[in-house]
Amino acid sequence: MTKKMIAIDLDGTLLNKDSQLSHYTIETIRKVQEAGHTVIIATGRPYRMAYDYYRQLELSTPMINFNGSLIHIPDQNWEWEQNILIDKQYLIDFLKEEERFEADFIAGEYKNKFFITQNYLENFSPALLGVERITPDTLIHPERITSDPHSILMQTRAADKYALADDIKRYFNDELEINTWGGPLNILETCAKGVTKASALTYLLDLYRMDAKNLIAFGDEHNDIQMLALANRGYAMKNASATLLPYADRLTDYTNDKDGVARELRKLFLD
Q: What is the C-alpha to C-alpha distance for residues 175 and 248, in angstroms, rounded to an integer?
């Protein structure tokens, strides 16, 4: 069988509702890799919030974080690492509109650190940011924003996160990419214009000298649209957002809580 690149989202896709990997999923990914296929995590999550899953899956491939703003191999000084940053002025402008965007928090995300607003700490769990607690040294204010971030992460109280994403795009004159996370949380993530999971995967396909016809992708949310459109075989999860369905070639038979990705991979490569 021709070797494939398999790009997999995390939240709402590979992870269950408790943000965990099942033993069945871990074992399946291991066997797929042993069969010679290249498994790539492609997530909106920051690096620190995806690293443990990368290790559980025993991956050694590049990882895509921040919806494509960071392409790297964890724990390695990889010569082809790619960082695409947002002008820091956008983050400063976001902070000015904290109430307009009904933000529980706004965070400037960097590869190995973050700064965050702390006016509504009771509205979210620190675990969402990959830490045990939010500490005063991470408090964001304009004078601390001295370098360009990979992304801007925001949780909103707005009833419709998709409508808010469109509103923010208009506010910034369509100069940024704004996507929603999978799962139940009202999370928006902002990247530099033109940065998507698909742009990152195109970069990796070129490095691996592979064609998109050998790309398989799994996703569940708005930020997976371009990735599924790029893939020769793009799977939307059974639990996927309706916004993604028109771009999918197939729908998984099972949800993320029922090992939907692993079951499809077993059918494709192991059964």
A: 26
- The total domain count for the chain is 2
Let me know the angle formed at the C-alpha of 225 by 69 and 204, rounded to the nearest 5 degrees.
45
Tally DSSP H helices, then E strands, for the chain. Answer: 7, 13
Q: What is the mean pLDDT of each run of 10 residues along the chain (271 residues)?
A: 94 94 98 97 92 96 96 96 97 95 96 94 88 93 92 93 93 93 80 96 98 97 95 97 94 98 97 87
Q: Where are the alpha helices (DSSP H) in 39-124?
A: 51-56, 88-96
What distance in Å separates the CA atoms of residue 261 and residue 21, rounded to the nearest whole number? 11
Q: Are residues 126 and 257 in the same domain?
A: no
Least Cα distance to 156 among 208, 122, 105 occurs for 105
Cα separation, 101 vs 164, whole angstroms: 7
CA distance 201 to 198: 5
Boundaries of domain holding 219: 5-83+195-270
Give the span between the Cα atoms of 54 and 219, in whole angstroms: 17
Give tens-digit pLDDT for 77-103: 999 999 999 999 999 999 999 999 999
* Torsion angle, alpha carbons of 214, 218, 222, 223, to 10: -70
Q: Which of 174, 192, 210 is the last residue of a domain?
A: 192
Q: Where are the alpha helices (DSSP H) in 120-237?
A: 161-171, 197-208, 225-230
Query: CA 254, 69, 159, 222 torsion: positive or negative?
Result: negative
Task: Tell me the pTM.
Answer: 0.91
